[in-house]
Amino acid sequence: MSAAFLPFARPVIDEAMVAAVADTLRSRWIASGPQVAAFEAALSAYAGGRPVRSFTSATGAMSVALELLGVGPGDEVVTPAQSFFASANVIERAGARAVFVDVELATRNIDLAQAAAAVTPRTKALLPVHYNAPLDPAALAAFRARHGVRVLEDAALAIGSVAGGRPVGATGDLVSFSFHPNKNMTTIEGGALVLNDAAEAARAERLRFHGIARLPDGTRDLEMAGGKYNLSDVSARLGLAQLARLGEWCAARERLAMAYFEGLAGDELLGPERLPPRENPGHSWNMFTVLLPLAEMALTRQAFIEAMRREGIGVGISYEAIHLTTCYRARGWREGQFPVSERIGRETVSLPLFPEMTPADVERVCAALRRLVRSRGA
Across the chain, what does the average pLDDT equal? Predict the structure, then answer.
């Protein structure tokens, strides 16, 4: 019998979580309510006591964050060219201009020297992304102080990471998390925004629910034209159960990542320059990314992915270079501007990594990977 299909990501959902969600459904309070309040309190405790508000997605959280920062038409926001599309789209949808810069090859994090060179009088914010390593909080604080801009950290991949001795989110300016099912914990769909103070949190609450404010007589007023991004109690109850196991799961992810390094050790086609940094303190290992040696392979990346799937192994692409998409080429960006991001976009694949995997699963992936990069094709 062939081995079961191994996806590149899969959430852990146990029977206790199913029961907790069922209890919430039975309560008939399924929209935003006491479970959302409890989830936000738990996230706040995780983030060192900072206020946290939940959203239907990290994209919604970042959109509200940019509105809190006053980002709009005529403004610029500096962001990496190598990330998921949402990082740039929220800027453009705010009416501002996404100003791309390149990333560092190993960490895939934003090149802060290039970011500094991209700052203009129109720059309103920096939107960096935690990728193959946690961003350095001291470096972000120094950037903010030097250039006088706000910082919105896209920490979609970084829930569970530690930087500067504290959890990502416990320091910095604004920090957004994702709870999509392929992240380190999930609320099915959802996200959160870590804020600086009660005033910011109150404004975020209104922006996520139509801009409504309650008056003393119980009627409602509209102070601003808000959106609708409020999380449900059903999702929040799952998030509470997931958050309680986040540390355990991140430790499992780290063990699996180390097993990948061992399984690929000594392969001249898959050397350290093609893998994430192995010495990576505080990293929560949401993904294990590999740059394929395409020049030495007979297979294209798509043929490699299809071959892996025939072997029962799921592979992702994380991520394409944003500036080379049709949307952003139309805004004037072009090939050759950000060579590191473009190389990653051409060569990257994401291997299976989730807490329920076994060492045998990692061995299976490594064996298939090592064999297929040497395949002579069909």
Answer: 97
Are 174 and 148 in contact by the 8 Å Cβ rule? The answer is: no
Positions marked catalytic? 183
The domains found in the chain, sorted by start residue, are 15-243 (3.40.640.10), 246-372 (3.90.1150.10)
Single out the residue of 269, 304, 306 nearest to residue 376, CA to CA. Answer: 304
For 116-171, the pLDDT digits (tens) are 999 999 999 999 999 999 999 999 999 999 999 999 999 999 999 999 999 999 99
Amino acid, single-letter form, for residue 168: V
Q: Do 107 and 85 contact (CB within 8 A), yes or no? A: no
